[in-house]
Amino acid sequence: MATAIVAGGCFWCTEAVFRDVIGVSEVESGYIGGDMPDPDYRSVCSGTTGHAEAIKVEYDPEVISYAEILDVFMGTHDPTQLNRQGNDVGTQYRSAIFPLDDAQHAEAEAAIARANEEHGGRVVTTIEGPAPWYPAEGYHQLYWEGEGQRNPYCLAVIPPKLMKLRKSFANKLKES
Fold first, then answer.
1. C-alpha dihedral, 8 to 11 to 15 to 17, nearest 10°
2. pLDDT of the chain, 176 residues: tens digit per residue
3. Which domain holds residue 77?
4. How far apart are CA 53 and CA 94, in angstroms?
5. Using CA atoms, how far apart are residues 163 and 79, in angstroms rounded to an integer?
């Protein structure tokens, strides 16, 4: 198993996308990239801790590569929006990749270059870290599968991301 950490706006949304990707065995929502030890949701949402809402993806590199994980990430959120995704605004919603070693760092640079080709050089995704990972509170985990299906925000934001995943990455989907 291997690990990837990415931040692309609301972690409920990115978690929902990656739960449907082949080779992914676990997705955990959490916080990374800030200064405050052991942050909580309220403090991160204040925008004062420097953390991003992010996901930690556990995956099988024999099934899907880190480069493919990054391509799905870049293709299912808007990497051209600085410190925001849609109506979610603030540094906690930034687009960022947190490589865990030099090989991942090189792949992150390559993924941003590929995305820049597609987006006319407007990608603002950063490469950050290393930084400590803090799991989000339990009620944030598996959010779309539970409370998210009744949350108007999630109902407005997550289905279009899942449609983009199904349209652009059909060969990377788990079988239903």
1. -50
2. 999 999 999 999 999 999 999 999 999 999 999 999 999 999 999 999 999 999 999 999 999 999 999 999 999 999 999 999 988 999 999 999 999 999 999 999 999 999 999 999 999 999 999 999 999 999 999 999 999 999 999 999 999 999 999 999 999 999 86
3. 2-172
4. 8
5. 17
Q: Encode 89-122 in three state secondary structure.
A: ECHHHCEEECCCCHHHHHHHHHHHHHHHHHCCCC
Q: Is 50 helix (H, G, I), strand (E, B) or coil?
A: coil
Cis before 132? omega within 30: no
Residue partners of 28: CB distance under 8 A and separation at least 6: 15, 55, 56, 58, 135, 136, 141
pTM higher than 0.70 for the full model? yes
CATH code assigned at 108: 3.30.1060.10
d(CA 79, CA 135): 23
Cβ atoms 57, 18 nearer than 8 A = yes
Q: Which residues are catalytic?
A: 10
